[in-house]
Amino acid sequence: MDSDYDTMDVKGGRPVKMWTHGVPVEPEAKEQLANTAKMPFIYKHIAVMPDVHLGKGSTIGSVIPTLGAVIPAAVGVDIGCGMMAAKTTLAASDLPDNLGPLRSAIEKAIPHGLSPKTRGFKGRDQGSWQDPPSAVDAAWMQLKDEFDVICAKTPKLRHTNNYKHLGTLGTGNHFIEVCLDEEGAVWLMLHSGSRGVGNAIGTHFIELAQQDMRTHLANLPDRDLAYLKEGTQHYDDYVEAVGWAQKFARMNREVMMQNLVKAVRTVIKKPFETHVEAVNCHHNYVQKERHFGQDVLVTRKGAVSARAGELGIIPGSMGARSYIVRGKGNEESFTSCSHGAGRTMSRSEAKRRFTREDQARATQGVECRKDEGVVDEIPMAYKDIDAVMHAQRDLVEVVHTLKQVVCVKG
Prior knowledge:
Layout lengths: L5 E3 L7 E3 L8 H11 L8 E8 L6 E7 L2 E2 L1 H4 L6 E10 L8 H10 L24 H8 L2 H10 L21 E6 L4 E8 L2 H18 L15 E2 L3 H35 L10 E5 L1 E8 L2 E8 L1 E3 L5 E4 L7 E6 L8 E3 L8 H7 L2 H7 L22 H7 L4 E14 L1
Parallel strand pairs: 2-3
Antiparallel strand pairs: 1-2, 3-4, 4-12, 5-9, 6-8, 6-10, 7-8, 7-17, 11-12, 13-16, 14-15, 15-17
Helix pairs in contact: 3-7, 5-7, 6-7
C-alpha cells in the first residue's frame, strides 16, 4: 500500500514516520518524538498520527512499538481511554424540538464532573455513584477477582475510587453525545477511560519505573521515558495491571452506554433499537501485536487500531464533525490512525485566549454547556478535523460522518 508520510531521521535513534501533511506540528512535539525514537528498544520506527501534540514524556498521537520493554508514561494515566458509538433506529425527526430535557436526562443518569476542591470537603464525589445501579454491580463482578489479585501486590489500589467510578464519565475532554449521521440517523457516542483506578495504576508504575532507573535517569532524554524491562517483576505486574485497567475502561463505556440508552428512552417515547452498528475502541493503551513478522508491544498514546476492515472512531471537538472509520491495515503506521483532532494549544492558553461568548458562538446549534468551565474545550483549541482526516486518508476510509446535537461534559 502506498503511504503518504514524511520521515524524520533521528541521529542515534529510529526513524519517525509522520502522517502530518497539511496539519501543524509543534517543534516541542518533534523534539519529544526524537527523544522517544532514541530509546534502545524501539522496533523499526515510530508512527505519528496527524493529531500529534505535546504530551508527558511522549507525544499524544504517536504509536510506539517496543521489544523487551514498556514505557508506563507513554501509555499514560488514563489507561484504556477510548470511544464508544452505537447507531440507533431513531431518525432526526424523532428528536424533540427542545433538546434541553434530553441533555438533562443524560446528565442525571450518568455521574460526571468533579466536586469542588474545597478544604475539608466530605461530600460524595459528584463524578461517582452513591448507590451504583445493578448494571455496575454486574460489570464489577467480572472485574473483581482479578482486581483482588492486583491489589494483593499493590494494596494502595484498593483505596482508589474503582467500583463507584464504573459507568461514570469524568472530566476534561471526556464527553457524551447524541449525533446525527449523513442520512439523519441518530447515534449515541461517548468518550471515557479507566477513571480513578486507572490513574492510580498509571501513576504508581510511572513512579516505579523512575525508581528502578534512579541510576539511569540522568542519561534519559526525559525522565518520563523511564521504562520497565521485560523479565522483571515490575514489568510483569504492570502488564497485568494495565491489562485489567483496559478491561475496566471498555466495561466502563459499556455500562455508560446502557444508562445512556435508558436516559434517552425516558425522553423519547418512540420504541427504538440500538447497537445497530457499534464500535468500542481504546486510544490510550498497550498490547502485544504482530508486525513485520515480529511480536512486539504496541503502545498507542492517542491513536486507534486500524487493522484492515476494523471499525474505529475519530471524534472532532465540540461543534465539529466526528467520524466512524474503517481501517485500511497500513503496516507502516502499525495499523493505526488518529484518535481525534488533536490540540493546538494548552488548556490554560485556550482559557486565556477565548471567552464564554466565543464558546457559545462556536457551539451554536449544539445543546451543551457554554460556560467558562468548558472554554478550554472550545473547537478553536483543536486542529482542523478535515485536515486531520485528509492527512490519514491512506490509513482509514470514512464510513459515517457524525454531527453532534447534544453534548454532555463533566
